[in-house]
Amino acid sequence: MALAFIKLHAAGNPLFQRWEAKISCQPNSEASIVMDFHLGSGQGVGKVVVEGDMLEQLPELCTKMEQYLSTWKKFMKEQRSMHYYLNYYTAEQVVYLCNRLSPGTQTPTLDGQVVTMLSFIRPGCDTQGLREMLRVFWGDFHSGDTLQERRDEVDLQAVVEEEQVCEEEKEKVWEVEESQTSGFGQLDQLWDAYMRDMRGFLPHTLDVPSLGRLLGQLAYKGEEECKEEEKKVVMRSLPGGFSSSRPNLVVCPPAEILTSCLCIYMASELEPLPSYDEVLLCDPDTPYQQVELFLHRCLTAGYRGQKIYTLLHADRLGYDVSFKAEQLFQALSLRCTHDYRLVIICSSSREHAYLPSAFSQYRLLAIPQEPLERVQRYLSHHYTVPPDQPSAADVFKGRQFVGVVSSKRAGVGKSLYIQRLYKKLQESANEEVASLKCIRLIEPQVDENIILKSLLNTAEGKDLTIFHFDVMSSVQKGLHEFLFRLLILRYLMDSEGRMWKCSEGQLYVIEILQSPQDLHQNLPRASGIANTAAEMGFPSRVTGLTLLDTVRSSAIREDLRVEPLLFGTERRQLRCSGHLIRLPPCRLPLEVFPTRPPGRRPREETQGQT
Questions:
Q1: Do 464 and 432 touch, CB atoms closer than 8 A?
Q2: How far apart are the C-alpha atoms of 255 and 314, rounded to whole Å?
Q3: Is the dihedral of CA 477, 478, 481, 484 positive or negative?
Q4: 108-116: average pLDDT
Q5: Given a cut of 50, is residue 212 above it in pLDDT?
Q6: H helix count then E strand count, the chain
Q7: Are 211 and 277 contained in the same domain?
Q8: Which helix (H) or strand (E) holds 258?
Q9: pLDDT tens per residue across span 216-263
Q10: In CATH, what number is assigned to the domain containing residue 327?
Q11: 141, 294, 511 from 218: Cα distances, Å
């Protein structure tokens, strides 16, 4: 029963959000199970009491909750198929929006999370604009929706009076049924009454169908009040060799996956960077719900433009998630009526995983690649803030709101440079309030939940903010994916559904000790010939070469811009030697370092004992 309740709660059913059950294990107890939905006294719904033996009633309760779960999943599947923009949000986020966008409040209070979530549908709209639009839409919900559902041109006052009569009759019927039935019969009646009239049953919470219509109206209605760039829909073109209305499987070396994804979207340079709804980065912990929403966005009609949906690192998904994803794709593709554009990018080291094997018939031979200079120009174009827009990027070169400050060795003034940028921002800010937020990445594995929590704790009311991400040399895993999600997709989301979206009014500076390629390397140590073989193992796999290709190791290092391990070891030794030489003469390390014992070390003789 606990598992069924957790699934109902996680599936976003509002009726079970505050459900409470008390189970009595005493044999002489009159009520074995007492359930309370905490709907309030105004709903006319009291507690549901189940009498009888607890061992006999508990399995039946579990069966009914599983039936409710199946019914709710089918209902949500239909709603996501009817309302395209519901697929932008998880079940937890849908519940959050339904509670925050309640139609009962005349002056809605939109917090930062609501504005962030709705900004993916309505880009560039501020809190005041959203509040005005929501007030108009809620007026339509209270008046026009009822008329549209009944499809009768009747007076609004008559409809209101009729609804009041229906509410009174419903309460009377509920009281009569409650007096005549008990236990699981009341529970079934409660569930059926909620599924028939969600808005009337929970008037202080926005129901899911109304939320779907609201999101659709936010996306397309009232466009005359927005700027030209906000009204423009995304129209992307696929690169050469890619096909629409079918999957496109790309298998490439692990080091080229993120670059290949970016090159796909470079085919439409004037369109914005790929966003939260177009690209899904997968890992072994990615839940099925994320993949399900991604496929619904790709294969469900509802967006007026043309986007490219890319599934990155699809080979990392678990077996169960991969199997369900394939089954869902087959079901949705049969009902799909528009030209979808789906790209699946996997690693060549795991090309025999489930999804690459399932979509192997759609594999492409070419790997999207672009010159480094063109990639830099592409990113520079999209990172440049217009001159008429106030932004913290005024203090950075080219008015770019994303920058990387790097060096080959530590202690050359990277942090000092960022501090001077902040001082310059304080001097140039007139009425705006400037701030600096430093987030240090120290752990070997990047934890995006901790980073997002730190970002959300940033003090509100700061108009111009510099976010300083100090990446330590100890970071080894997850850095590339984190930077891609933050700087390219421009969003972060934790396991609870809380989101952060990058703004052009802020400046994001990444301080890093060396290039990301060097940070990604984790080469083993060896000696002699074994050292060279182990050292070249990773570069050879990256380039796709074997010993049969007869390519010199120096040529591979030159192409990848990698230096031998021996050079790095000698550099560290020379750095330590230079530090000792600069010590004062009285220091003990300087006296011990050049000491050389005379003669040869005597050989130790071992004698066996019997």
A1: yes
A2: 15
A3: negative
A4: 78
A5: yes
A6: 25, 13
A7: no
A8: helix 257-265
A9: 888 876 554 444 444 568 899 999 889 999 999 999 998 899 999 999
A10: 3.40.50.300
A11: 14, 21, 38
